[in-house]
Amino acid sequence: MYELLSEPIRRYVREKKWDSLRPIQSASIQKVMQSEDNLILASRTASGKTEAAFLPILSRVNFNDPGVQVLYISPLIALINDQFIRVQELCEHLDVPVTKWHGEASQTLKNKLVSDPRGVVLITPESIEAMLVNSEYKAKGLFSNLKFIVIDEIHAFLGTDRGKQLQSLIFRLRQFNTGNVRVIGLSATIGSFEQAKEMVGPVDSTRILRDTTGKEIETEFKYFEQGNLTELPLALLKDLYLSVCNSKVLIFPNARGTAEEVAVKLHKISQKVGGHPYYFSHHSSVHKELREYIEAFAKNNVRYPFAIACTSTLELGIDIGSVDRVVQINATHSIAGLIQRIGRSGRRNDETSKLSLYATDPWNLLQGIACITLFKREGFVEPIEYTEKPYDIFLHQALAQVRQVSECTQEELIHKLSINSSFKFIPPDEMKEIVTHLQQTDLLELIGGKLIIGVEGEKIVNTKDFYSVFQTEPLFKVQVQDKPIGEIPYSYLTKVDQNILLAARIWKIIDIDIRAKRITVIPAMDGKKPVFSGFGGEVHPKIRQEMLRLLITDAEMPPMSEDAAEAIRQLKLEFEHYKIEDFEVDRPLRVQVKDMYWYSFHGTRVNGSLSFLFDVAGITHERWDLESKFKFDAGDFELIIQKAMKAYDVLEPYLVSAVEKDPALLSFSKFGAYLPLKYQVHLVRDKRFDFAGAMDFLSTAHTSSIHTHTNS
DNA sequence: GACCTGCTGCGGACTG
């Protein structure tokens, strides 16, 4: 395939002294050079996807044509800065200018590009939105002669609001391109590609090039019981220290606070025993410059071992080189996330990836094992959840498009939105109803037959927060009387009388000053556990089913420490007498004197929906998601199931009143609150719950009961 | 029991 490349690009490949092109690169070169298809290039991290896209694109495009020829879109500024260096190096051979265009990029260089639009531009979705909304003429001047759009890390957009927005932005860019714009998405290996196809363009002209060769994954599981401790067990930290002190490792503890704890404590142990000082933490609350320093250290350092305790900030494709081992503390919520993390390890191409999972309770251990066994046995990765009717993104894009053209008729607006594939499942009469509602609420205004942004709309559109569709929480200062004790994100859970955990103590909120962003607290008198939860990660039903299978059968388990094996043995003992044959439907029920416990072994969303149905039916219960366990008063369980199923018939009014009473139910959506109520309810139902799944489960579930006389 | 992501255009002060 090398022969298909242009001479300057061949020279680049020769200078790089690569032994050969990677499979994904050869496949991509052929399809980019010899077809007009849109492409999805899917292969694991660090397999040369950027080059796979850019080598043939740069060979094929004539950069003497007017306007920007190639638009590269990335979900992260950090990734743009990272890729800029690589793309620039490639483009030097062709004398093609490369320009970064994001909020932190040089205004001078952006202005220079506007006066002489050429070459390659690296941009974020929000910067595209801002340009379209504020100065359509600029976007037209730059981007009306595009040949290629490259979307990096496209899996990070799939199934998200930001992805829907990006899909719409690509559509809007295509609108003023008369020629064909080809789109190439770069992706990690993911469960399904249908949505990726939707995003890049017409489904039938999109090809998927997939390099499935993965690295071997070597796992070990360890167990250190945490019990009621709020901090990690000392034995875990000591074991972890010994296992990582001479290697380059990433440690993922699932939470920012724990990441800090791990970094600080490992460093302390290292100081005591005269080990290396390279222990870092990397997450969103760590200052940006420090994060960049850590990334550069990891990438450029060859001599020293290091450990970075981090969150998902190090899951995406920023180049930090490769590490020897990845440590996961407790289970991830998704297999997709776990695989991304594991992919960071294995120094050379042919070397195995190494994962150590440290669990602090038996259910987390079981979930971690279930994720790995499912992936290894079936290659299972969660399919992407698809929202057919993203009414809130529709509303955002309606406002954006009116602002983009300053004024247009209602018919023109509806037409633009109707032909936009992002909203193809929203029928025109629903579009009209929403646009009419926007006029009634002064977000839009009809003047002389033309729609313009209304008085209330100006407040939303005329702020820089308008360009992104994801919700962010501002940080609030927390103080006792006048003494500040820290900062927490303000969310719907932050209410007067609510208990919060901060600076290792429990507090009760007595006042919230929204304008001053200040929360006043007093020490909490009751020892009640602070409620921080709400909607955490969602675990897929298949993982829970696999957990049940591992408990009930003598299925082979991956290698684990003696303590881990013992924890699993104990858990299996609890379930050994239930008669579970069909893992889809047979579920354990433990009946005690006063209470009974039912294990659904189902996904987070169905469990939440079951809980809502029990509430509607007036059934008192408690719920634990990790164990997928429900507690009821002892009684007739069949009657509970029947009542819950009947509750489904009267569900709608309960949902409507829940959304009306508690706007927090919609807190996942930045613009949802501006919709008519019925569409708000639809969004809540669609994104938060799975009532169909819950009903399906209730109608088929069988219980296997065991009666005990204790009441522990 | 979570984690993460991004941001215009203008006027005015200041620097070299």
From TrEMBL:
InterPro entries noted in UniProt: ATP-dep_Helicase, DEAD/DEAH_box_helicase_dom, Helicase_ATP-bd, Helicase_C-like, P-loop_NTPase
Molecular function as annotated in GO: ATP binding; ATP hydrolysis activity; DNA binding; helicase activity
Domain Helicase C-terminal stretches: 236-392
Entry-linked SUPFAM superfamilies: P-loop containing nucleoside triphosphate hydrolases
Keyword Calcium: no
This protein's name: DEAD/DEAH box helicase
Residues of the Helicase ATP-binding domain: 30-208
Keywords: ATP-binding, Helicase, Hydrolase, Nucleotide-binding
Nucleotide-binding among keywords: yes
